[in-house]
Amino acid sequence: MHQVTSDMGHRRRGMVREQLLPQGITDEGVLKVLGRVPRHLFVDHALQAQAYSANALPIGYGQTISQPISVARMTQALQVQDGHCVLEIGTGSGYQAAVLAEMGAEVYSVERIKPLYLAALDRLTRLRYFQVKLKLDDGTLGWPENGPYDRILITAGGPKVPEPLLRQLADPGILVMPLEENGTQRIVRIRRERTRWYKQDMGPARFVSLIGTYGSRG
Ligand code: SAH
């Protein structure tokens, strides 16, 4: 058991060194947190040996845990600070939520597929991520009761930024999501500052679809 754990630690440090650093992840906090969160415990037992490879991996129901580099890019783009209130749409395995929690955030995460929500709830509780709150719902509607949020992260690609989420973003605040245009996806960062909005392209992405009232049709 101890040997398995230290082997995973070794692979995790390899992931940081061979995937994240060469691909432009410079944020010390992001590098430290991805080097710490036990990604292998967020996938099925049979896939644990692949947990630190460069791939997205299946988590059931046609969904995936995103590639390490995608999680790192999204987290770096979000500029999370200690004490931030962060809303994530698309809990999936719960890995990204755990990363945000380790960045010092209070995390609210919404998932629309019940078995994934239940599995993430069980996993995050067992791993003692008590600063993460989960909800089963259409995340394109947000989670208005706990807003406004300093940061909002959507980990599924949609045709436009869901309007309810723009309303739940604090001022100042940052929202990051993959936007679909002409069949491809680009990560965009939307910054709200003194009632003004700024939009920035952060490069290509490949996420599963955001399905809901303000996303694509399921
Ligand atoms: N962040 C996840 C990976 C996301 S995969 C992780 O770290 O593992 C995208 C997830 O978004 C899937 O689980 C999918 O079911 C979910 N999703 C898609 N549309 C959604 C919506 N409208 N509301 C909530 N979750 C949604």
Output the CATH topology: Rossmann fold
CATH class: Alpha Beta
Name given to the CATH homologous superfamily:
Vaccinia Virus protein VP39
The termini sit apart by: 42 Å
Q: What structural class should be given to the helix and strand makeup?
A: alpha/beta
Number of strands: 9
Oligomer: single chain
Mean pLDDT, as a whole number? 96
What's the structural domain tally?
Answer: 1
* Overall shape: globular
| Sheet with the most strands, sense and barrel status | 7 strands, mixed
Radius of gyration: 16 Å
State which percent range the strand residues make up.
25-35%
Runs in which pLDDT lies below 50 for 5 or more consecutive residues are none
N-to-C order of helices and strands? HHEEHEHEHEEHEEE
Hetero groups in this structure are: S-adenosyl-L-homocysteine
From the structure above, extract its key features.
alpha/beta, 7-stranded mixed β-sheet, 28% strand, 218 residues, 9 strands, Rossmann fold, single chain, 6 helices, binds S-adenosyl-L-homocysteine
Brief account:
This protein has 218 residues and is an alpha/beta fold.
Fold blueprint:
Elements: H1 2-20, H2 28-34, E1 57-60, E2 63-65, H3 68-78, E3 85-89, H4 95-102, E4 106-111, H5 114-126, E5 132-136, E6 149-154, H6 163-167, E7 169-181, E8 184-193, E9 196-205
Parallel strand pairs: 3-4, 3-6, 4-5, 6-7
Antiparallel strand pairs: 1-2, 7-8, 8-9
The chain binds S-adenosyl-L-homocysteine (SAH).
Residues 63-66, 89-90, 92-93, 95-96, 110-113, 116, 138-140, 155-156, 208, 210-212, 215 line the site of S-adenosyl-L-homocysteine.
